[in-house]
Write a structure and sequence with these properties.
It is a single chain. By secondary structure, this protein is an alpha/beta fold. The chain folds into two domains: about 10-125 and about 290-300, Rossmann fold (3-Layer(aba) Sandwich); about 130-285, 3-Layer(aba) Sandwich (Rossmann fold), CATH 3.40.50. It is about 40% helix and about 15% strand. The longest helix is centred in the last third of the chain and has 24 residues, at about 280-300. It is globular and about 55 Å long. The chain starts with 11 loop residues before the first helix and ends with a helix. Bound molecules: phosphoric acid mono(formamide)ester and norvaline (NVA).
């Protein structure tokens, strides 16, 4: 594994290996026998805000022996229009790896190609692979590492966003049932579903259908970073997909609610539901650190 650019490009086995390593690194925190990033500098190149991703990568890189270097695109020449392929060729000669949060997936793909150094997608408009790995790790902790095929997971709200798309590829690779529920305009387009060709993904405009007998209920903001102008027009159509106690009455008894955060209480999730699920939601945030350390470790030690 040379880069982590998307969940789409991983295989089920690669996901399972990353999760197993994530559990191991979590158990060994503070006591790692090898530090694969020793002597290395990894840049975090961010064009969007971040709390969890930035902090978990800075801490994770340090804990594996490396030095993180945070570069806001407001400060570097990329923000003034220097092409990504030039930035990549410069940084590729100085640093050992890059973690990129940006808008266009192609920028992450181009950075990886032109820099030649391990590159990690820390969120684009297309996918949020690091978050999904942390979410899968959290689900394995909560319900045991068993057969993903027996699990029903739902994602409600803006289902064709970076989180929803990453969930779809995870369902394709691991085989769990994924029920996506949102207003018609937010459902994945026919060509996306055709590319996935995945019979275990259900798309519906009926929130109740998605949540019925479901074990893990996920949601995310209805307004992703970069979509702020759509706030007024978008929100009204999404309220039937709010994760609230009334809807959760349909879920499996042993269910949990997850949220990648930041959460907008009163919109995609009620305060009551978020607080009732706070232990798992904040463990999910913590697991960003452990899952990403597994990614860093794998990229730093991979031969191919
Ligand atoms: N979930 C997530 O990526 O959080 P940040 O935007 O704070 O990094
Ligand atoms: N879909 C959200 C995820 C935030 C972590 C966004 O892109 O803003």
């Amino acid at each position: 594994m040379k880069n982590l650019l998307s969940i789409e490009e991983l295989t089920g086995d690669q996901i399972r290996e990353l999760l197993a390593l994530g559990h191991q690194l979590k158990a060994e925190r503070g006591n790692h026998s090898t530090l694969p990033l020793a002597g290395q500098t990894w840049a975090l190149i961010f064009s969007k805000s971040s709390t969890r991703t930035r902090v978990s990568f800075e801490v994770g890189i340090s804990e594996l022996g490396g030095r993180p270097m945070f570069l806001s695109t407001r400060d570097i020449q990329l923000g003034r229009g220097e092409p990504i392929k030039d930035t990549a060729r410069v940084l590729g000669r100085m640093i050992h790896g890059a973690v990129i949060r940006t808008f266009d997936q192609q920028d992450v793909v181009d950075f990886a190609a032109y820099s030649g150094i391990p590159t990690i997608n820390a969120l684009t408009d297309l996918e949020h692979p690091c978050q999904i790995l942390a979410d899968l790790l959290t689900i394995e902790e909560q319900y045991g590492v068993g057969s993903w095929k027996d699990m029903k997971i739902s994602f409600l709200g803006d289902v064709d966003n970076n989180m929803g798309r990453s969930w779809m590829w995870a369902a394709k690779h691991l085989g769990f049932t994924l029920a996506l529920a949102g207003p018609e305009q937010a459902l994945p387009k026919a060509d996306t579903l055709a590319a996935l060709a995945c019979p275990n993904i259900i798309c519906t405009t009926d929130a109740a259908e998605a949540v019925r007998d479901c074990t893990v209920i996920n949601t995310d903001t209805w307004i992703s970073m970069g979509q702020e102008a759509e706030k007024g027009t978008k929100e009204k159509a999404f309220f039937p997909y709010q994760v609230n106690n009334e809807l959760l009455r349909l879920a499996e008894k042993n269910h949990c609610v997850m949220h990648c955060l930041p959460a907008y209480r009163g919109y995609e999730i009620t305060d009551e539901v978020l607080e009732a699920n706070a232990p798992i939601i904040f463990r999910e945030a913590e697991n960003r650190l452990h899952a990403q350390k597994a990614v860093l470790y794998t990229l730093a030690t991979s031969k191919s």
